[in-house]
Design goal:
Blueprint lengths: L1 E7 L5 H12 L4 E7 L8 H9 L25 E4 L2 H5 L10 E4 L13 H20 L8 H11 L3
Parallel strand pairs: 1-2, 1-3, 3-4
Helix pairs in contact: 1-4, 2-4
Amino acid sequence: MRNILVLCTGNSARSILAEAVLNRDGAGRVQAYSAGSRPAGRVNPGAVRLLERLGLSTAGYRSKSWDEFAAAGAPQMDLVVTVCDSAAGETCPVWPGSPITTHWGVDDPATAPEDEIDRAFRVAYHRLSARINAFLALPFEDMDRADLKARLDAISRI
C-alpha cells in the first residue's frame, strides 16, 4: 500500500476530488490524503455536489493543513502530488521519508463563473481522473524511484 498526499492551496476542491478518486480507483493499492498550505476551512460545495452525483461518499472530507502530515505520528507519504500551481511553487514542509513529488496542475474550478461551476468541476474531475488512472495503470510497486518520478512527471501532460 502506498500513501499519497494531494496538495492544493485551499484543500477544498481539486485536492479533495483527487483524494476521492485515488481512494476509489486505487483501493487496496493506495491510501490517499489531501491537505493545503492555507486551508479554506471547508470543502467547496461544488466538489461535494459532484462527488455525490458520482456516488462517492463525502463523509470525512475536510479542509486541513499540510502541517498535519509533517507532524510526528502522521502517516509516512510515498508520493506527494500538487494539483495547483500556487501550492507547487510554495516551500513545502519536510516530509518524513522523502516521498517522490510531482505536479499535476489543474485549473481551479472554484474560480469559474457561478453559471459554469458545475461544468468546471466536471472538467477538473476528468483531468484528475485521467492522470490518476494513468498512474494506477503503472506497476509502481515494482518501479525504482527514478523511473517512477519520470513517469509521474510525464503523466502531468495528460
